[in-house]
Design brief:
α1 packs parallel to α13 and α5 packs across α7. This protein is globular. The protein contains 13 helices and 12 strands. The chain folds into 2 domains: about 120 residues, Rossmann fold (3-Layer(aba) Sandwich), CATH 3.40.50; about 180 residues, Rossmann fold.
């Protein structure tokens, strides 16, 4: 029986490793650095990563004689050089639906935290204070949520927000207006979304079209006092412009799970009193990690076996 060699560099739930081991030798080298990866990749038929490992052009060049597939146990593939994969004829697959529920629920958790000042309330209690009068929040019911990016996660967020009694606006340049309507949102232009939304949640990949799409000009078009949520990808928000908008009161609060540089350190944005900052954990649930591991293991084996694929990037 054919047995392949699979390298795992960012950890993989044991359910995924068990699937891989039915047909492959699995080497789990979580935390491997870039130089070690370059030195060892030529011994593997498949590489499975999450967001930490950067699969660069050099990695594809070093592994081109044997490497057949790179699997991303998650949605975003901005840490993988897709152009290099294409040049070398190496397949890239991901798991676009495994983390949908986890990220959508986390988006709502961030929205509630912004609306009801939950982190501030907790911090005040742990400081021995009873700051009840200073913690006046707002209700989500009756507010307008603008969802930028109406893919799987954006649509799931729209469904949850609708159940809370929010009006949901949706913008996605890649999805027809009619389809956005079927996914639970009123389809609008991005300018209309900026002007009408009390809350804005971002669910787009990081690419040349989306990099810094939320910039100073965009903030100027938003309703004063808007609240912003981003657990998609760092870099889609111009962080300098966001800090300025927060200090000017144009943005009342922001909840950020992703940053242009990760970890960001204690920056002025992270430390801002009206910012909720978390360490890229939106997809971090036991259930979603198990689903992602199962999906990516099955998809990688399908590539190696020459079987039909569900989630091929290239």
């Amino acid at each position: 029986m054919q047995e392949w060699n699979v390298l795992v560099t960012d950890g993989l739930d044991e359910v995924g490793q068990a699937i891989l081991k039915t047909a492959a030798r699995v080497e789990d080298r979580s935390g491997i650095n870039a130089e070690e990866l370059l030195q060892s990749i030529n011994a593997f038929d498949a590489l499975i990563v999450r967001g930490r490992t950067k699969v660069t052009s050099a990695v594809f060049s070093a592994g081109k004689k044997k490497l057949r597939v790179v699997g991303r146990a998650g949605v975003g593939v901005d840490n993988i050089d897709i152009a290099a994969a294409t040049r070398h004829g190496i397949t890239v697959v991901n798991t676009p639906i495994a983390t949908t529920t986890a990220v959508a629920e986390y988006t709502l958790a961030l929205m509630f935290s912004l609306a009801r000042l939950i982190p501030k309330a907790d911090a005040s209690m742990k400081s021995g204070l009873w700051s009840k009068k200073e913690l006046l929040g707002i209700e989500l019911s009756g507010k307008v949520l603008g969802v930028i990016g109406m893919g799987n996660i954006g649509a799931a967020v729209a469904e949850l927000a609708d159940a809370l009694g929010m009006t949901v606006l949706g913008y996605d340049p890649l999805i027809p207006f009619e389809e956005i309507g079927l996914r639970g949102a009123e389809a609008v232009s991005i300018n209309d979304l900026f002007a009408r939304s009390d809350f804005i949640s971002l669910h787009v990949p990081l690419n040349p079209d989306t990099k810094s799409m939320i910039n100073g000009q965009a903030f100027g078009m938003m309703k004063r006092g808007v609240r912003l949520i981003c657990d998609a990808r760092g870099g889609v928000i111009d962080e300098t412009a966001l800090l300025g908008a927060l200090e000017a009161g144009q943005v009342a609060g922001a909840a950020l799970d992703v940053f242009s540089k990760e970890p960001p350190g204690i920056t002025a944005l992270v430390a801002h009193p009206n910012v909720i900052a978390t360490p890229h954990i939106a997809a971090q649930t036991a259930e979603s990690q198990a689903r992602a591991a199962q999906d990516i293991a099955s998809e990688v084996l399908s590539v190696l076996k020459g079987e039909p694929l569900r989630w091929k990037i290239v």
